[in-house]
């Protein structure tokens, strides 16, 4: 069906220009979540090396036994400050943060209302909890309101949504969601993996972009994308919630502490973002350049103003063959097909980074136009 996923092997650091194993130097990379180019930023790497030397390779322990170092506490405090929240708790990944939160917070008396296109880790986290489950149509506020009315009989209601949706590059209508949450006395949870560091004037995320920083209760996000790209995730929000997670959240209680090098890299990435908003702002014009040139060439790009730019193709084989042909022209992109996206909605997901040059973007558009014509995706 054209849905088999093989892995290409990279023989260099992550960045806009890659070397592939077995040849292929100078490949232009358009599919990392390295939105700000911090994955290979010299100061981030130096901070990682220094923290590795000072604090060791790892803790060989979970946090509550002998796995909490001063750097873990410092990073949690920094994350909370970055998001203007009371407290934060680290996990080995955001997948773990999402796996831990719903079960720890919600009981069979409660309800969770989830966007149907939420990330797999939110879906799995919700599966693990015993709350009553409602799934509303993607970004459909009428449907969310109807589900909130139905859920009024439960003790506590939690609306859960991605801030920015990773497959479509669209942004949740958080203003409307928060208004409905107020009306029906619900809490709002957002997954900010594809927003933290670069959406909003200071890169705080979707809640900053849409003016609802004081209305969203809980944020889960990752250190493994814009914030240095190594690994790690977190929950940030009210202190009593974070206290509860430290006692109850299973991926936190039963999994190793975040390695010091990873902590050092993420802490430096946050420092860079808090020193100035220039990095956070650096990507918007490039995203705009790619989206407008591709649209002018005749492609359909899903989403709104987000560096995730899905080139919609429909057919899984077409997406896969076009991605291979792009690579033969020196452009690294990947086709996404079922089960990662719904059947019949295959696409090539292009991701723009602050470290792409205008020439890189123009080369990518030219290659897409040639390949698209060759395979009949363009007239
Ligand atoms: N949530 C969203 C929306 C994601 O895109 C991802 C990663 O793909 C995750 C959670 C998981 O993040 P991590 O890689 O930190 O486990």
Automatic annotation (TrEMBL):
One of its GO terms (biological process) is L-threonine catabolic process. Pfam families: Aminotran_1_2. Residues 27-368 form the Aminotransferase class I/classII large domain. GO terms for cellular component: mitochondrial matrix. It is an enzyme of class 2 (transferase). One of its GO terms (molecular function) is glycine C-acetyltransferase activity. Keywords: Acyltransferase, Pyridoxal phosphate, Transferase, Transit peptide. The keyword Cytoplasm does not apply. Its cofactor is pyridoxal 5'-phosphate. The keyword Membrane does not apply. It catalyses: glycine + acetyl-CoA = (2S)-2-amino-3-oxobutanoate + CoA. It comes from the Eukaryota. Its EC number is 2.3.1.29. Belongs to the class-II pyridoxal-phosphate-dependent aminotransferase family. HAMAP family: 2am3keto_CoA_ligase (MF_00985). NCBIfam families: 2am3keto_CoA, PRK06939.1. This is 2-amino-3-ketobutyrate coenzyme A ligase, mitochondrial. It comes from Nothocercus julius.
């Amino acid at each position: 069906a054209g849905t088999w996923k093989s892995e290409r092997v990279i023989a260099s650091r992550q960045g806009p220009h890659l070397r592939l194993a077995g040849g292929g130097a100078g490949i232009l990379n358009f599919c990392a979540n390295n939105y700000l180019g911090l994955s290979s930023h010299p100061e981030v790497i130096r901070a990682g090396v220094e923290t590795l030397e000072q604090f060791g390779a790892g803790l060989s322990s979970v946090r509550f036994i002998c796995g909490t170092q001063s750097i873990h506490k410092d990073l949690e405090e920094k994350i909370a400050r970055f998001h203007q929240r009371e407290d934060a708790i680290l996990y080995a990944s955001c997948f773990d943060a999402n796996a831990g939160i719903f079960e720890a917070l919600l009981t069979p008396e409660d309800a969770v209302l989830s966007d149907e296109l939420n990330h797999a880790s939110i879906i799995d986290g919700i599966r693990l909890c015993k709350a009553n489950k409602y799934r509303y149509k993607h970004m459909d506020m009428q449907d969310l309101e109807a589900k909130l009315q139905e859920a009024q009989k439960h003790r506590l209601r939690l609306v859960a949504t991605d801030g920015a949706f990773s497959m479509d590059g669209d942004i949740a209508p958080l203003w409307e969601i928060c208004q409905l949450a107020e009306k029906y006395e619900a809490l709002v949870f957002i997954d900010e993996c594809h927003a933290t560091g670069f959406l909003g004037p200071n890169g705080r995320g979707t809640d900053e972009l849409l003016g609802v920083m004081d209305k969203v209760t809980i944020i889960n996000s990752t250190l493994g994308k814009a914030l240095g790209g190594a690994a790690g995730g977190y929950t940030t929000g009210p202190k009593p919630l974070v206290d509860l997670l430290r006692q109850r959240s299973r991926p936190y209680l039963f999994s190793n502490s975040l390695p010091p090098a990873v902590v050092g890299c993420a802490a430096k990435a946050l420092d860079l973002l808090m020193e100035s908003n220039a990095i956070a702002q650096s990507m918007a014009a490039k995203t705009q350049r790619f989206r407008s040139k591709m649209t002018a060439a005749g492609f359909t790009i899903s989403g709104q103003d987000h560096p995730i730019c899905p080139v919609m193709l429909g057919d899984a084989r077409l997406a896969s063959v076009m991605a291979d042909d792009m690579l033969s022209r020196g452009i690294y992109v990947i086709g996404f097909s079922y089960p990662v996206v719904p059947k019949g909605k295959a696409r090539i997901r292009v991701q723009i980074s602050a470290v792409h040059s205008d020439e890189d973007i123009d080369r990518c558009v030219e290659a897409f136009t040639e390949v698209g014509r060759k395979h009949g995706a363009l007239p």
